[in-house]
Amino acid sequence: MRARNIKPGFWKNEDLVEVPFEYRLLFIGLWMLADREGRLEDRPKRIKMELFPADNVDVKAGLDELCRLGLLERYEAEGVNILLITKFAEHQSPHHSEKRSELPGKAAPITEQATATEGAGEVAGKANDGESTDTASEAHVAETEDLPETYGKPTVGSRNNHGRNRPDSLNPDSLNPEPINTLGTSASDAPMQSDPARTSGTEKKPPYPHEFELAWQKYPKRPGSNPKRQAFNAWKARLKEDYDPALILAGVIRYAKFCASTGKANTEFVMQAVRFFGPSCEFENEWTPPDTLPDRPRHSGFNEIDYSQGLKQEVPDGVANF
Asked: Which of 1, 91, 121, 319 could form an S-S bond across to 32 if both were Cys, CB 3.0 to 4.6 Å?
């Protein structure tokens, strides 16, 4: 089999949509079996073994239906029954190195010009005292040739498109004579707008809401990791649970005062914001700072203790004073 091109218009062809889907697959398979001129032998059993070896498909009926639609044509030449895909050359672009057809083309009809030439040959033969000429005999011979005006131009030459073959996938032709766009312009067909951020090479980060930015500014700082994006995701989750942003902000302010009064600000003891805004809802806590202790030396009151007490007690002999 050969690789062939399937165009989008195939699926909307007004004739093909009326036939069973297995006949549509049969038509596609015929492209792959046909040579570069769109010809193949008219042998239904062999075609079935090539395309549907394990399926119960009536290939002969399918060929008859495709012929009825004018998509195929049957003819006999040199004792061979041949199928011709009528517009194969219009919709396919075989590779230039593909082997030329070994099957004979459809015999060209004898034209009026050939008939006139035949008559002229007969007259000339009589004028030459019965001497025969080759002109008359050649006029009776119908050359075996293709009909480009009916079946499309012959397949591609050795080279095209600046020395290269045009890829089948870029062939703009359609099986429908007039394209019908019933769905309108798709998103892929619409012109793409340039993204300034991508054009400049820097990705522009989406802005955060004003309420979150204010809470982030008030939140106590800590060394190490404190991912803002994860904190914002937790913030949004709480808003979806109907928490008021003002309530969360008030909790941030209380927590900031608590960290400042306890000496935890700017230390690793400040919890990450993602936890503060997380499901545990730490912003709802009171975060009341502890009472202020009197200003006194940390190590004091030792002069008020009588360390000699107990040492002055009399202990009987043999008794340890512990």
From this structure: 1
* Residue 77 dihedral angles phi and psi, to the nearest 5°: -145, 130
Quick: pLDDT tens for 105-116. 887 655 555 455
| Whole-number pLDDT of residue 8 | 85
What b/e sequence results for 167-197 when a residue is b if at least 16 CB atoms lie within 10 Å of its CB, and e otherwise?
A: ebeeeeebbbeeeeeeeeeeeeeeeeeeeee
Choose between 291 and 5: higher pLDDT.
5
Return the amino acid letter for 213: E
Do 209 and 216 form a contact (C-beta atoms < 8 A)?
Answer: no
Whether 213 contacts 232, CB under 8 Å: no
141 has a pLDDT exceeding 60: no
* Mean per-residue pLDDT, 27-32: 91
Question: 229-253 b/e with 16+ CB inside 10 Å = b?
Answer: ebbbebbeebeeeebebeebbebbe
Q: Among 108-122, 256-270, 297-311, where is mean pLDDT lowest?
A: 108-122
Give the per-residue SS3 of the chain.
Answer: CCCCCCCHHHHHCCCHHHCCHHHHHHHHHHHHHCCCCCEEECCHHHHHHHHCCCCCCCHHHHHHHHHHCCCEEEEEECCEEEEEECCHHHHCCCCCCCCCCCCCCCECCCCHHHHHHHHHHHHHHHHCCCCCCHHHHHHHCCCECCCHHHHCCCCCCCCCCCCCCCCHHHCCCCCCCCCCCCCCCCCCCCCCCCCHHHHHCCCCCCCCCHHHHHHHHHCCCCCCCCCHHHHHHHHHHHHHCCCCHHHHHHHHHHHHHHHHHCCCCCCCCCCCHHHHCCCCCHHHCCCCCCCCCCCCCCCCCHHHCCCCCCCCCCCCCCCCCC
Residue-averaged pLDDT of the chain: 74
